[in-house]
Each structure stands twice: as C-alpha cells, then as structure tokens.
Amino acid sequence: MATCMEGLEPGHTPLPCGGFVYDLAIPDACFSESCGLIVDFRPNVLTGDETDVETNMRALGNAAGFVVVQPNSTSGRDAASRDRIFFDALIVALDIDTNRVHVGGGSTGGFQTWHFICDHADLIASAAPHASGRSNAPNESCDFTKDRSPAEQVDILISHSRYDNRVRFERGTDQLDLVAQSWDLAVDQVLIEEDDYTWTRWTNDIGTVVEFLEFDWTKPNGYGHCYPGGVGPAGCSPDNPVHYGEAALAFYLAHPKNEAIAAVETGEASAEIIISGFSFGEPITVAVGDTVTIRNDDSSAHTWTSDSDLFDSGSLAKGEEFTFTFEEPGEYSFYCEPHRSMVGTITVTG
C-alpha cells in the first residue's frame, strides 16, 4: 500500500490502490501540518462522487482541517480489514493526527462503519453510522459478544429514519441497545425533541458519548432510506433541518479520541511487570483505577495469580500479556502457580 501513496497532491484525486479506487480530498495545509482524517463510506449503489453529493464531506471536512477519503471498494468485514491497511498507509504518508480519525457512512457505508467500530476501534476517535444497524448476515454483525466486540469504546452518532423501508428502524434501535447494554450507557439528555425528529444523548461513567438521531423524513415518494439534507437522488430533502454531513462533522469535531476511555477499555498499562529470569522484579506501587500489565519474557510459561483470588492470568507463554485494573487500595500479594518460589507484591494507594 505504501507505493500507492507516492506523489500525493492537494485537491481531489481518485487514487487506485490494491485493485480499488479511493477518492481522496486533501487540503493544501495537510502537506505542511498534521490534519485529521474522515472516512466517508459509500452505499453500494453510489460511487464516492455520488456519495459526496449527499454528504458534501469533501468540502466540509477539508475546510475543517481533515483529509477526506471515500472508498470505492467492496463492503464487508474482510473489506474493512483491507481498507484498514490503506488508511494506515495514508496516515503515515500524510502524518495524520491519530487522535482525529473518524469514520461514517450511510446504508452499506453505515454497516461498514460498524465493522470499523467493532474490529478497528483502536484506529478511530468517533463514528457516524447512518441507516444501518444490526446485520442479519452471519459473522457480519457487531453483536458486542465475547467473540466480536470493540477493543475500546468510541463516541458514536447513530442516525436512522423511522420510516426506513430498506434497513428497518428496529435494526438501528437493536444496535443501539447492544451498545447501551455493553457499555452501560443511559440517556443523559434529550438534545432536541420536535414533531418530526428526536435527538438524544447517552453517556456512561467513563465519559463515552452515543447520540441517536431518529427522524420521520423521507424522499418525496415516501422512501425513508435516505440521507437527511441530501440534495441528490439518495437524499431525503435539502429542506430537512439536519444535514447528515454537517451533523457528522460537528460530532467529529466535538469528539476527538478520548485517551482516558481508550486506556480503560484497552487495559493500557499504568504500570508494567515483566517476568524475566523466573522473577516478577521489584515490588511496584500504583493508584486506585490504574491498570497493570504483566508480560512474560521467559521461555517457560508462568502465571500471575493473586493470593486472594482477585486475579489470575492463567498460563502465559513467552510474549503473552495479561492486564488487571485495581479498584481498591491495599497491598496485594501474588505468585506463579507452577513456580511457587516466584512471588511479588503490588501496593495500591487511594
């Protein structure tokens, strides 16, 4: 993918890479300073250019200091992994600010956004899936199960027409329920409540924000699978009080990557213990709420097992890690199950 990035220029460029074309819109300033990145996934029935007619994301994003990419590639979970490789290469080539990487899209593009939320949450700061939700296809749904759940929480703006006759409104609310249950979200505020649309905000104790925009707007023919405010054939109506592209951009600007949330969700180490030479090393001190990561650098397998049964890593082969977050102050002793002479302590201050 790196070879695709040679000779990038400002302006709009349809960039062939890996057998697909990615529509890029790069502001001049992004060659001299670090910009953010917005990915605007297209519905399958539209090209990148046609999608931009509805979202206006190139102009909006460029004016706000973002590189905008609209993939003309296939959809699905495997396609998301391939697109991730392209985005990673683009981030390196343009020195993108990794705290300002956002993904969104409508219809198929909305489902593609959910793939990124579920499988590539480490990449993104926030997301804006529209007219999408829980998938009916096996292995394609972001079900927030043990086998498939985001590695960390991200802020999300979900939007859906109550009269969507292609991706039913209930599929959007089902996906919202999965997020809310998994991340312990509750309605924090009704931002707007009008006869034809409602905008609510959900939050949790660690500061994750999910907003839900539900509306009655349709195309003139009553077809509700459309972009709010869009001016093309896939738009609801330019007279809608909310424009999808403008709302998504405003959400992105308000929600850069929340490093505190990422640290909690990924178990990012506040402290680290390295097992080496059949030793846990020196005792360490951490604060309440800190996450400790233990890594085994020995060729033999070891465990990190609490004397009080508070934590147990199970067998860790060489190079494997385990994390635990300490919620109460105290002194915690631990040992290695197969090597009982290996012991250590952690002091948690509060």
Question: Key terms for this structure?
Answer:
350 residues, alpha/beta, Immunoglobulin-like, 2 domains, four-stranded mixed sheet, 23% helix
Describe this structure in words.
This protein is of the alpha/beta class. The chain has 2 domains: about 1-265, Alpha/Beta hydrolase fold, catalytic domain (Rossmann fold); about 265-350, Cupredoxins -  blue copper proteins (Immunoglobulin-like, Sandwich), CATH 2.60.40. It has helices at about 50-55, 55-65, 75-95, 110-120, 170-185, 245-255, 260-265, and strands at about 10-15, 20-25, 35-40, 65-70, 100-105, 125-130, 155-160, 185-195, 195-205, 210-215, 270-275, 285, 290-295, 305, 320-325, 330-335, 345-350. The model has no long low-confidence stretch (mean pLDDT about 90).
Chart the SSEs and their pairings:
Layout: E1 11-17, E2 20-26, E3 36-41, H1 48-55, H2 57-63, E4 66-72, H3 77-94, E5 101-106, H4 108-119, E6 126-130, E7 155-161, H5 169-183, E8 186-193, E9 197-203, E10 209-215, H6 244-254, H7 259-266, E11 271-275, E12 284-287, E13 291-296, E14 305-306, E15 321-325, E16 330-335, E17 343-349
Parallel strand pairs: 3-4, 3-5, 5-6, 6-7, 7-10, 11-13, 12-17
Antiparallel strand pairs: 1-2, 2-4, 8-9, 9-10, 13-15, 14-16, 16-17
CATH superfamily of the largest domain: Alpha/Beta hydrolase fold, catalytic domain
Structural class: alpha/beta
**Strand segment tally:** 17
Count of individual domains: 2
Mean pLDDT: 91
* Beta-strand percentage range: 25-35%
CATH domain class of the largest domain:
Alpha Beta
First-residue to last-residue Cα separation: 48 Å
